Records
---
Amino acid sequence: MPRLQWSRATSATLLALVAALSLSACSDDDDNTPDSGVKVDAGTDAGSDAGTNTDAGSDAGSVDTGIAWDGGSAGTFSCEGKTQATLNFAPGQEEALQDQVNTLAECTTIQLAAGTYTFDNAITIRQNGITLAGAGKGTKGEGTGGASSTVLVFTNAAANSNGLDVVGNRFEVRDLAVWNAKKDAIRVESSVDVVMRRVRTEWAEADKESNGKYGLYPVKSKYVLIEDCEAYNAADAGIYVGQTEYAVVRNNVAKQNVAGIEIENTKYAYVLGNTAQDNTTGLVVFDLPGNPIKGTDIRVKNNTITGNNRNNFASVAASSSTVSQVPAGTGTFMLASRRVELTGNTWGNNNTVDVAVLSGLAIEDDVTLWEAGGFNFASADVYIHHNTFQGGSGDSVDNGNLSPQLRPLGAALAALYAYGETQGTLGVEHLVWDGLDPYGHDRALVNPINICFANNTLPSGTTTAIVDLDLQAAATLATQGNLPGAWGRTRHYAATKAEFACSGFSPALTIGDFIQ
Amino acid sequence: MWTSFVSPRLSVVLLALTLAACGSSDPEGPGTPPDAGTTVPDAGTGDAGGPDAGEPDAGSDAGTDAGTADAGVADAGPVDAGPPLVIPNTLSGFGLFTGSPADGGLVPVEGNVPYTLSTALFSDYAVKSRTLYIPPGKTAHYEPVAALDLPVGTLITKTFAFPADLRQPDQDVRVIETRVLVHQPAGWEAWPYVWNTEQTEATLATGGRSRDVTFIDLEGETRSFKYSVPSKNQCQQCHHLVDETGAQVMHPIGVKARYLHRPNTYGGVEHDQLEYLASLGKLDGLPAPANLPKAPDAFDPQAADLPTRARTYLDINCAHCHNPKGTAGITSQLFLNFDNASLFSLGECKRPGSAGAGVGGEFDIVPGNHAESILWYRMHTEESGKMMPQIGRTVHHAEGSQLIADWIDSMPAKTCK
């Protein structure tokens, strides 16, 4: 299949091609993963019917999105009725700990006394029912354990090693800190029932590209709870829920990371009451190309996502990571995402933009690479309501530190708004839509992907709150040096714009409804 | 002074033990001497007492159900595979060797067959010796592509050692570790043993260890680094295939016909290794010699053309993960197995899902340009978080990365988009 170049190919060709792909995507949309309480097929048909083709199935699953699941045993493995031994360790017993970790009986609790533990390799757990518990997570900046904290130090560990590396059902880690892991601080893969509670993951130095990538990283897992944790200085994401089904991310703090909290290729996530500050980007929801799980049903509620203006320290020449392309000052973005509700959140002082809705084509325009997820590049059904926008955002795109090569969207946005300023638009609106999806849509349609913006509190004096960038046309014109033409393609709307004053999508999200 | 495993000596005592161990009368497994030290609980297959959530239960009640629970692996052994082998605390407890590196060399007992591979996994320039023990009365089945179908009770050992000077690989050799793959009734297990300073015994180190290693490399440069003995659980990072349920099932890697089909000297006589195993009654189903697959020595330009040698190197060094049934392969969709015919999933103009920052380029392979190919970069670099393989390598393999560079550069140049 020929590669698509959205900036060059003609719209007619693209429209035909994307429509053809959408058709095959529909017929190919089976879900290989077991379960899923409510089967939802919403707004992913990038062609013509985005947002309307909602099919609420009724397959009985073990956990419905509306059930009061908040971590613990939702899967089939349980320790109930089984021998549950506890192994106790103190600082200095790291070698014994490592030996025991490799021969654990299932349903063992490893209790670590307060203090500092130094490891030269990952703690690799491959057993079900394991709990790893310390005496406390300590506070930010503490690389050693105290009287009531347990700190696992990996500063001199083997290259390429994670801190905790876990595959095992019903896994829990609590009350400890993981310091200076070489790669990911806590990686839990292919596991069902995962709890991370009161855990701190941190690297000693801020803004260091060679820090580990992820702090708390459940991936390809199911039923995950991350609660009351802290994540600092990750060179990619502080908290990264990847390719997972059913995740609750609640009351955590993520600071000084490139991305504070990421929900990637994940179905059914409830992201509640977190604080994402001082990252490059605060809290983001996206699908990446090449992943078989098509993300959907994400509720982002009561989070504080402010002051995320840290310069992107993941960025280097020839990087191929997605997060390295994000301009500093991005509060929240959704990319290749659908059925996302954002409510009760606070955004402010994010120098580039508070909220952006982007097509997956903005980062990967070769649609063939989205085949694994059923051509899930289009975004649709985003409901942004009852949030507070404090202001101070959108006034210094990428902190003025522009790089068309590394962070092209930021550079394009900055160029557009530099011209816009001469036309009286003094900053990027609170909600940016790139205007790409459905690809090649009729521009007479104001809101073809059902983005709803309603009942939000905006700073006084706000004139326009929503922008449709028409990125394909605008970027092409801007590249040709025609900034007036490019700016002319963008559309700026008041918060009350009728086409955006909708009330979400149907069926409405239920995840988290019954979680207290 | 350390001796390579060339010519196995008969050890009557140990052979007797071995034979006894594998008869039905002795449940203890091959040759656990009375003084082998304390054993460790076998938690890998242990049973906490309750229902076992889909995991075969070969732990406490193995007498009744062992042999039925082989994690989906084809099992060459008889149905009644017997109880699991109790894992000894010391390497000598297996009874697989006589002698030690301290007293003239570690010598495989009769029945513990040394073998070599035509191209081997690179492990920080460690000199490796391998043995294969198939219990009496049991036979492995030939597999044309996958690892040989080895019966329950099979023991595979790999011993890692460093000579003081790589240019004299037989002199001043320090043995670091011996890894033992054990085919238990419930599946394969990997157990690492670390040699003591005196080189008289290796002790079970399930949690892995790190050891400072210094040697003089082929260019005469002194290299010092911290060598990591992997933990038992880390072994599975490489030694696994994902089954239909998505679970990782442990498998051996190197014992594949194409790497074993080469000569070795047994009792002073040269034999093809596969044919030798067959002659011992340890391998059946072997096709005619002309039909045996053969992987070349990747570093012998006479053995095969450059692409074949490069693909062989990638196969043995990368494809245990980067294959359609390896977790990393599934995640990355980069398949480096020798029989992958798709240029794209081999990496040509393939953008990685998430390679992280600074890995040399945007594509796994840019034909004609190794310097911008991530595949080469990650093999070449020694930087944590960027280097491949994930474990088992601290220093870079100059000859290996040169081979891959030459191969990529030999491809017709192409611009990737």
Note: Residues 1-62 of chain A have pLDDT under 50 and may be disordered.
---
Amino acid sequence: MKKKVTLKGIVKGRRLSSRVLEEEIQEVVGKGARNIHVLADGQHGIGGRIWPGGETVKITVEGPVGQRLGSMGMFGTEIVVKGSASDDAGWINCGADITVLGDVTDGAHNAAAQGKLYVQGGGGARCDTMTKHNPKFDPPQSWYFRDVGDTFAEFKAGGIAVVCGVNPRNPENILGYRPCVGMVAGVVYFRGPIKGYSETDVKLLDLTDQDWKWLIVNMKPYLKAIKRPERYKELSRSIKDWKKLVPFTAQERAKKKDFKMSIAEFRSGIWEKSVGKGGIFGEYLTHPLTILPYVTTGDDRRFRPVWNNYKYAPPCEYACPTGIPSQKRAQLIRADKLHEALELVLQYSPLPASVCGEICPNLCMQACTRGRVDRAYNIKEMGSASLEIKAPKPQKKTSRKAAVIGGGPGGLSVAWQLALKGHDVDLYEAEGKLGGKLELCIPRERLPQKVLRKEIDRFKEIGINVHLNTKVHRKKFDLIYKSHDVVVVACGAHRPRIMNVPGSKDMVPAYDFLKGINTGDAPDLKGRSVVVIGAGNVGMDVAAEAYHCGAKEVTAVDIQEPAAFGKELEIAESLGTKIVWPMFAEKYEKKNGKIYFTDGTSLKADLVVISIGDMPMTEFLPPSVHTDKNGWIQADDAGHTSNPRVYAIGDATRLGLVTHAIGHGRTAADAVHALLSGRSYNMPPPKPVAPYEKIKTAYYDVCKGEPFAPVEEANRCMSCAVCRDCHMCETVCYNGAITRKGYEDGSYEYMVDSDLCIGCGFCAGICPCGVWEMEDNI
Amino acid sequence: MEPASRLDNNHELSLRDFPYIIRWRDERCKRCGRCTAVCPMFSIEPSVIVQRILHSEGGMPEPKAVRRVVTIIKQSTDIGRYCTGCAACTLVCPNEAIEPEYNSRNKFPFHKNKGGHPYRRGGRRNDPRPSTLDRLRFTRISMLTDPALDAGRHEFRIRTYLGRILPAEELPLKIINGKLDVDKKSGKFIPPVREIYPVMIGSMSIGALSPNMWEGLAMGVTYLNEVENMPVVMCSGEGGMPQRLLKSRFIKYFIPQIASGYFGWDEIVRALPHMVEDPCAIEIKYGQGAKPGDGGLLMAHKVLKLISEIRGVPMGVDLPSPPTHQTKYSIEEAVAKMIQSMSMAWGFRVPVYPKISGSRTAKAVLNNLVRNPFAAALSIDGDDGGTGAAYNVSMDSMGHPIASNIRECYLDLVAQGKQNELLLIAAGGAGKKGNLAANAAALFMLGASAVSIGKYIMQAAAGCFGDEYNRCNVCNIGRCPRGITTQDPRLYRRLDPDVVAERVVEVFKSIDVELKKIFAPMGRSTELPIGMSDGISADDPAVAERLKISYVC
């Protein structure tokens, strides 16, 4: 059935529906029609979906053509429209050759995958969008003779579009507004002016020879089909008349920069060009305008380690009123200088064995950091170990004269220090022996006589003029004052405080009681009951001595919680002393041997010793030396009184421990020495105590109670705040920034190379002695 | 001597009381010290511990004790050195050996008031829950009903107007030579109006921010304008602006702020004759969402040469911005006086608007502004905003969420028919959970004409460590580990302004795409969908009712 079949869209004045016309076309094709003439009346999809089975079916369409002409057209279908076509001509074209001898409106060849669309005129908007290229077939071709409308070739994913640009409707732009948005494959060849395209998707290129060859070969059948073969010459005149738009490849797209301009280019080319070099803050900033890493060295560190050797006082030294640097002794012993270590203490006290070693409550040991690990560094025994050490040699004589009034611990201390500094010292003592309360009042049990003797003898070796049995009264004082450059008053406190209660005159002052015993005038208290009023440490000494004198029972009473502590308390309690408080004495009836208290109770008391403190006897002083109404001399920590040539120390200024008096004497000696040397004296501010948490106790093992041996003991000292030269810091430093520098004199320091140090704080964190500290790196 | 309490555990806090606990892995640590070198709080420090291991290897008890002292990284239990969880240690650790871990059962608030000083910090409200904005969804999708738009293909005009828009009938127009033109002889005031990008960078001062951070933001904003043609603007915050910027043509992208401290204004005023462009606008700060009703304080240690020069103050002094402006005694007077003065400074060519903290009294301010023809906008800062320094109680307990505040103000304008004349700027919490575009779009649809961001851009552009679990949040003490809020060059030089600028550009380019992805399916491409409340829904009926939007489930 090769004959030509004509199908009409209007039959007897009635328009066929798209469905009926489609059924008719399919029917005639099925019956073998291969040349169909359709007189259309706007029917949809004419000429599509025809499966001619390898043959060719020609369809000529006349009249008003409906939408989607030739949609889903197949290979072998050849459609020629004699006039213009409506929207979506060639929609999902699967191989049909469609020739429109007129214009196509919007959406022509949308989603075409194979076949050809030849347009004799121009295209509407959104033509050639979504076209594809199935690799199994040739790509679809869309040819537009004049121009195309806006948003051409959007999302084009394959296929070739050609816009010839002949006699365009818009002579300034033949591709319409913003073509090729989302185009990923295929090509658009065009000839004529355009105004922009989607620059993010496609690029504008000249044609290659290959392009050109394809174009001029395929142009001929196109021009022939649209009946414009005469234009061939004009259109193929020059490759330079043509351009193409091709999409960026996926690779090109991936490589595409996100930024139109790098920030660096922006900074130099736009920003700093307007605001100036160095940016908007450039004129205010003094530092380099570079970027720093998180971890920095040198000046850029936030913190720097500092080897603060001995910046703090070790707790022992800080706590010792005499100021004995016990850690230094340990350091010397560790350096194999045992003898120097034992000598060292004599620079601080003439009585280390008697005081440190015997009667001192050893505040140093109470403060000792080692005590927080096991037991304190045994400084007491260290003191005793210096008993046999010879007196140090005094310095060259100065010919300046100093007098010291009082041969108690304070007087001995200041005389010792002044004599060591080379001054002539006259020491005046009212009693027949030196030592003051050590000699007179401390029970021998607590301070063996031979220890004290030995140290007093050593004291005398350095050439102090000792005047025993010389009681200083006012006249004597004036003589002394006149014949010496300086007078140091260290007369102690001997006037007992007494209570204003009936029978108080029958009470014995503790000072007298204890002095009697030490000077061989001990009372016989066999079977007696003794009451001690005042349960401080002196009261405990009294109690102990009372037992030694045979007392049956000793009761110490106090008005408040007793202040007694340490060895004194221990001894008294071990002997049976009862301590009762609060008790306020009301009266003492010596005849009845009874003391009564305000609470109505009473105690048997053959002897009542009153031990509520002593006051100094300072009537011998001239008015220029101010005292308060109780006789205490007003003196500062360096012993300065209101008279610039008179110094006062020890119990005469305030009550304290023996070590306080020794320390006060030592400080006063410095002040006196300054005066005698013609210098002004500024008491050095005390170093702050080394904080415990800075000392790393982890390094030290808990020791069992081995017997005292100087070397082992020195190893137990944790050297608080003083470098022990252990090299831990040097070893721990990951960056190798710490080195030890030794000097010829044997001294050394640890140094930091700031170019290597990152300020991490490892040295400070692990330093056993707390010497390294981190400081703000300003 | 030290009291015994220091030596024992009496009154010591345990690590369990702390908000972050350092997880340190001994076996991975090489003791290089990088972590302790960077810890801003000195929460971690090197130390030594002793390990004592008892062996008995024979066939019967044969004790042998081995003692080892080893170095460790130790966390402090001093409340002043608490670990903020910033994880700078983790950042610099080459061996992944250290990391802070959040401890939800911490007792921090019970203890952080040493010396009777309440807890002060920077950052944001410590409330990790999603905000109301995060619970709003865009439900009106154009499905064949409207022309469906394509975010990738269609061109969008995401812009807003900053300035007072006169109603058409009030515009002094006349026909001149057959063309409609402004009648300049009418003597009528035509308010200045700027066309800007609807997401702007909010007020963070030079001082609160380091120079590197501030310059990075400023460069990013300028890049967006100059290179990307996105008219993003940035408010200076209180604390002046550098002369170089004031006198550059880029000043038109910036909004200088005046606040109660008036810092830097003499420097700005003296720069006026040298300015080649007008600034975008002037913001008058009355309040801040993060710490409503409280003032600011730039600590003396931050007031170095830079701040001193820019703010026009001596170095090393505290710079307080009082909670309220002085010399103003009523809303009428306060607002009118300030807007007049600031407008006058630039010859009435620059829009001027106040910024207040979110508050139930916002409508009172709004209605005052409606009656003031010089008022360009009202900026409302909600309680999820950030701050460089505030009392914890102000941050956590004071303030009004932005969503309902902006909504009621907008509806108030609608009731008066003024919704297109006075714009509302919403701030304080946009992008709290990182969903900036969605939050901003929701705010537009609730009635905001523009959205201002601060905290978000710090996180996105500079990698701010802070979060709502109180991580880091030490902006106030000058030790910002990122270099964002410090004046210490050793810290702020960690921050590369160029990288900040690049991130600002990336952030704005991407939210631009995201806004399109929201607007396109809703069929909007030309005008910002301000007040398009039929587009959003809440998943909570109470929220829906309060915001007068639909409820979906």
Note: Chain B touches chain A through 66 residues (CB under 8 Å).
